[in-house]
Each structure stands twice: as structure tokens, then as C-alpha cells.
Design a protein that fits this description.
The structure is a single chain. The protein is an alpha/beta fold and about 210 residues long. The protein has 2 domains: about 5-20 and about 95-210, 3-Layer(aba) Sandwich (Rossmann fold); about 25-90. It has 8 helices and 7 strands; from the N terminus they run ββαααβαβαβαβαβα. It has helices at about 25-35, 50-60, 65-85, 95-105, 120-130, 150-160, 175-180, 195-210, and strands at about 10, 20, 90-95, 110-115, 135-140, 165-170, 185-190. The strands form 2 sheets. Strands 5-4-1-6-7 form a 5-stranded parallel sheet. A two-stranded antiparallel sheet has the order 2-3. The termini are close together.
Amino acid sequence: MERTKDLKVILFDFDGTLVDLKVNWELVRRKLRNLLKREGIDFEFRPLFPKLDKALAILKFKGFNDGELKKIRQKAYKIIEEEETSVLDRSKPLPYAKEILEYFMARNFRLVVVTRNGERIVKEAFGRFGFPQPDLITSRDDGFIKPDVKVVKFILTKLNLLPKNCLIIGNSVADGDMGRKAGVRTLIKGDDFQDLFEVVKFIDESIRKN
């Protein structure tokens, strides 16, 4: 891996990378569609969060004030959080998730979770599965979500780091886009690795070479 000697922090995606959250996103989309239909917006919400932002932008153009828009977003996020909470008992850690977190922590890397899920769900899942606690969690609750490069800039500022100090490990196009825009090395499940154990081997070998 390029610049492994500069690596200081690992940015992990949550659902699909560390945990199988088993959220029924089709159900969430139907509920969001019903919510926004009341305001004259009829989207399928694919992709979900960008479409939600677009719907709110249209409502703002129609004359909705900031307070009204905030209430609608809160209702939308409540729908999502209720579904996340309802499936937590059926969710499970993905293979080697706990091990890779412990591996990086033992080597003094800082751990960050970058997710579109809610922060409360992430904390509850980490506690339930015995994961080591991350140094920082960025979620939809922060007001910006991936692939917005503001997410990475916020993390870099918060931890006083540079792009070369970071590695993103994720499983989606959004993870890849965010990493590319931010100039951060990114490993994507299915493209760069199949399971997290491969990441451990890859990083370990790279560190030895450096």
C-alpha cells in the first residue's frame, strides 16, 4: 500500500462492512414516499438520502421555511431510526469485524466510523458485539453524509490529520466516491477485498515492507 508509514487513522463504513444490520430499506422507502406525498412530492427514494435531500430542496423552492423543512427531515429520520432499531436484535457482526478493529487499535491506529446510519444505532451495535469503541463516529445526525467530502474534511480537522494519514474501508459506491474526492486511499469490499481478514493481511504485509 502506498504511504503506509503515514497511516494513522482508519475510516470504517458500518452497515455492510462491520455489521449486517438487516434493515428493510424497501419498507423505509415506502414509508418515506408516503410521508413526502403529503407535501406533493412523489419519489421512489433511490438512492435514498440524495433523493431525500432533493425532495427537501424542492419543498424549500416551493416556499417551505427552515423550521418546516427541519420537521420533515426529523420525521424522515425517525422512520429510518425506527427500522434500524427494530432489526438490531436480528443483526450480526460480519466475519473478522471485531478482530480487525482490535488489530488496528493494538497498533495504535485511530478508529473512525463513517455511516449514514444513526449514531445511537452504531454505539448500541458496538456495545452489543463487543467492538472496541471508535475515536469518532460521523453519521447522518451530523448534517452531512457520504459521499459528501465534507465528512472527510470534518474528520481531518477534528483529528488534525492529512488525507495521506487516512484509509477508508467500505462497501459502496458512496465510500469510493468520497475517498476519491477527498484524496484518501480507499478499499472497497467486492473490488479490493472479499472479507476483512484480507484487509488485515494486506495492511500487515504493507507495514512490514515499509
